[in-house]
Structures are given as C-alpha cells and as structure tokens.
Design brief:
Elements lengths: L1 E8 L4 E4 L7 E4 L2 H21 L11 E9 L23 H22 L4 H5 L9 H17 L13 H17 L3 H5 L1 E2 L12 E2 H31 L1
Parallel strand pairs: 1-4
Antiparallel strand pairs: 1-2, 2-3, 5-6
Length: 238
C-alpha cells in the first residue's frame, strides 16, 4: 500500500506528515530518516484508532510515496516556524473530513487527559533544562493553538481564557468543535489569509490544513509530555 507523505526539508531537520493519516507528524535528521519514522507512524496509527474502537485492518505492507518535497531555510521542528501551505492541503474539505477530524480529536484528547490528569502537580510544573516547555506550559500551548487554528479561517473567537490549564483545554476545545461543526461550504473550500495575527511568511490557510493541524499538533505534544515525564520518573527511580 502506497501512503502519500509530504516533506518539509530544512538544513538539518526534515519534517514529514501523512495527509491521509491525521496525527502522523514526525521529524528526522534527513529525508530518509523522516520517511522511516513516517512509515512507523503509519503502522502505529492503525493500532491507535483500533484502541479507540475503530475496526480497521492495517495493510500487510506500507510504502512511503513522497508526493511533495518542500525545501526551506528554517528548522521545521522549531516552535513558531512558518506554516507553509502544501498542495495536498489545498483540496476542499468535505463534511465527512470534518466529522472524521472531530472523531480523531476526541481520541487524541482522551489520550492526553488520560495521561496528564493524574500527574502530580509538581510534575505538571517541572521543566527539563534541555527542553523548551513544562507539562503545564505544553498543555496551555495545545489549548491556545486550537483557538488560533480556528482563527486562521477568519473566524472570530472570544479571547477570555480560563486560568486553570485543564479548564482552558476544555474551553478552547469546545470553541473549536463548535466552529468546525458549523463550517460553511465556502469556508471548507477557500484559501484564507488570516486578518488577525498574520504570519510574516506562509500566511495561507485552508480548512484541510487547519483540520490536519488539530490532530497532528496534539498528538505531537502528547508524545513530548510522555517523553519528558517518563525521563523524569526514570531519573527519580535511579
């Protein structure tokens, strides 16, 4: 089975995402490494949705098919990087695409809360010296990003955010689900230049681009939280 993959090739890091597999966003030191991780992510994706009750059968073989390769001058893995629009994300998003994304968003949020809700408050605030964020600041980043993604489609949302990070996650997710569920045909088919918080580069967005970011972004940062807390707990045991 050929799986389409888009590559964002930087000087030292390559990012890869799978348009048909939201939640598979990986990085490698070069194109070969990124493609290898993307293949692993595709295999794991079937197990992931299966754990959430979907009856899916993974293909016996998976082969990566790079349909787009974009060469950039920045680090694709760095926070705050430009967000280029790939051709694969210019196709109109259907109502079915929206419903599927909302379903996958529920899976990813269940995973995130299931892992984080029982963490010790001290661990929530802890930040490794070599890492960019604590668990709590990562959760806040996930929440605010969801609010921000919706505004990329020139949808106005209130900016009154709760202080508690778990209430914040709930608040922005409710705004996101409501907004995505109400997307018009024009919003699902158009290319937008956001009027608020415009990026100095790569300031083009589509509904399909936004939909992918919701699942990719939360899954990516859930993995980050699992990694840094696992490292912390292992150090304590040692």
């Amino acid at each position: 089975m050929d799986v389409q993959v888009c590559l964002e090739v930087g000087p030292k890091i390559t990012g890869a995402f799978l348009p048909a597999y939201p939640g598979c966003w990986v990085f490698g030191r070069d194109q070969e490494a990124a493609l290898g991780k993307a293949k692993e992510a595709a295999v794991a994706w079937y197990s992931w949705v299966g754990l959430h009750g979907e009856k899916v059968k993974p293909p016996s073989t998976i082969k990566m098919d790079p349909i787009e390769v974009m060469h950039v001058t920045y680090n694709p893995a760095k926070a705050g990087k430009p967000e280029p629009l790939f051709w694969a994300e210019t196709h109109a998003a259907s109502v079915r695409d929206v419903d599927r994304t909302l379903r996958l968003m529920r899976y990813s949020r269940s995973d995130l809360l299931g892992f984080c809700s029982s963490l010790d408050p001290h661990l929530l605030r802890w930040k490794p010296r070599s890492e960019p964020r604590s668990v709590a600041s990562t959760l806040k980043h996930i929440a605010i990003a969801e609010w921000w993604y919706v505004t990329r489609l020139n949808i106005d949302l209130p900016k009154d955010f709760p202080n508690d990070v778990f209430e914040l996650l709930k608040h922005t997710r409710q705004l996101a689900e409501r907004s995505l569920g109400r997307l018009t045909e024009e919003q699902r088919t158009s290319v937008f230049q956001p009027k608020n918080d415009p990026s100095p580069s790569s300031n083009l967005w589509t509904a399909r681009k936004v939909l992918r970011r919701f699942v990719d972004h939360e899954r990516l940062h859930t993995g980050y939280i699992e990694r840094i807390t696992g490292s912390r707990q292992n150090n304590i045991k040692a």
